[in-house]
Design a protein that fits this description.
Layout lengths: L7 E10 L3 E7 L12 E4 L2 E9 L2 E7 H6 L10 E5 L19 E10 L4 E6 L13 E4 L2 E8 L3 E6 L1 H6 L10 E6 L1 H25 L1
Antiparallel strand pairs: 1-2, 1-6, 2-5, 3-4, 3-6, 4-5, 7-8, 7-12, 8-11, 9-10, 9-12, 10-11
């Protein structure tokens, strides 16, 4: 589990295309400290497993399902990526609960700079709109953010200078894709309420019979 608080901007140093997967080598001096085979590291919000680790670089395999559901397939040598290690038990939850399981991708639609912050408008897939609410949490490229405005097919976030300086959102432009993970609590609530409603309907139908 992650928190959406990016630890560092890493870099793709090598890309190996396989038959139904891809192997990345990434540089990240912070996240590789103490890293070992089998550890998890979030790359632009996608939970990947460390296959190999040497110096300040690590290797991770990305299967076709992940490439199809996220923006990782567009990465190339030199691409900058957000990196975060899993939250340690007992540490503060600085952002919100992030699983590293991307729900879909959006696109940067618009950037509106201000003196002390910047408003970024991002497209939202139709199947995810019900999970996104004003002042709720959403993960964009692995960054825990608060929704400013939730529209029918978009949402906006307000980025402070620290976020702009230390994450990929400081460099992405309109048209660039981003990975989205909605609040997992909203999905659990939806499932439980749906099961409850279905149970009530089944009971009512039984009485009618």
């Amino acid at each position: 589990m992650f928190t959406g608080i990016v630890e560092e901007l890493g870099e793709i140093t090598a890309v190996e295309t396989l038959d139904d997967a891809c192997r990345f080598r990434l540089r990240g001096p912070v996240v590789t400290q103490g890293a070992k085979h089998g550890d998890s590291i979030a790359v632009n919000g996608v939970c990947l497993t460390v296959v190999d680790h040497e110096g300040d670089e690590f290797t991770a395999d990305v299967m076709a399902e992940t490439l199809n559901r996220s923006s990782l397939g567009a990465l190339e040598v030199g691409s900058r990526v957000n990196l975060e290690r899993p939250m340690a038990v007992g540490e503060r939850l600085g952002g919100h609960i992030v699983q590293g399981h991307v729900d879909g991708t959006g696109e940067i639609l618009e950037r509106k700079p201000s003196e002390h912050w910047e408003i970024v408008k991002i497209s939202l897939p139709a199947e995810l709109t019900r999970y996104v609410v004003e002042k709720g949490s959403i993960t964009v490229d692995g960054i825990s953010l608060t929704v400013v405005d939730a529209g029918p097919d978009y949402f906006t976030v307000s980025l402070i200078p620290t976020t702009l300086d230390l994450t990929t959102l400081g460099h992405k432009q309109p048209g660039d894709p981003v990975n989205l993970e909605v609040d997992v609590i909203a999905k659990y609530v939806e499932r439980m309420l749906g099961d409850r409603a279905q149970g009530a309907a089944d009971r009512a139908q039984g009485v009618a019979r």
